[in-house]
Amino acid sequence: xxxxxxxVTEDVEEFLARAGDFLRARPAxxxxxxTVSEALRTSGPRAYGPQAPVFGWLxxxxxxxxxxxxxxxxxxxxxxxxxEDADALAADLAGAGxxxxxxxxxxxxxxxxxxxxxxxxxxxxxxHERERLYRLGTLTPPDPxxxxxxxxxxxxxxxxxxxxxTEFAAAIGSSTPADPGAWADTRxxxxxxxxxETPDGTPVSMAGRTPLVAGQIRVAPVYTxxxxxxxxxxxxxxxxxxxxxxAAGAAQVLLFTNLANPTSNALYQRIGxxxxxxxxxxxx
Length: 284
Known about the structure:
- It is a single chain.
- 37% of the residues lie in helices and 28% in strands.
- It is an alpha+beta fold.
- A hairpin with a 6-residue loop joins strand 9 and strand 10 (216-223).
């Protein structure tokens, strides 16, 4: 793939050595690449499943202009690219025999890559979802808050976190963690899930957050079981998780929403989140 300037590796350390400064220079649009590569660096190459991850960066005259990663069997995730570079990447990955189930990228990049993938492989892209990345401005907690309080998830919540994250992944059409128990254990040990519970102590919503990387933390996942929605629990949990992210030293607090859900988009804006950019998710 070097003929078009793309370099590919399965070594996260090599990837970060070459593309790390590029990713950290604009942490918001690169938030997923930063958090996933950090998780792979600290937890090992099988953190997201038994297959080896794949990384790539676009380098010309010693300067990095773009990057991608994939943790099979998930979709390829690509940083912002020109349409020409997105098409060239599609051609290179297709030519190298990389099977891809889909792509996640900023909207124009995802669309250009999907069209390139169609031309080079004959696959038919299908728009799965449009997402919006938000960044926290001034945190404005819901007023009034629902009855109850927030607390940090602990060992007694392990089974609930595993179940809720599996339900969350199913609801958004995403892959579940390779090991839901390990997923829960890590977040409990690091205090990275905020629960909202009713006055009787029943947890009704959760808002997780990623580790601090390049000055940013992303609030994810946010989940309330279907029968408990519409009562303000998600807004309260998200506000408290956002407060915890600021307390942990984040210069930027980010989150993604599905643009097809006007309720969540309005909610996050009410508590202080402002749009950054739109992403698209295609299945092949």
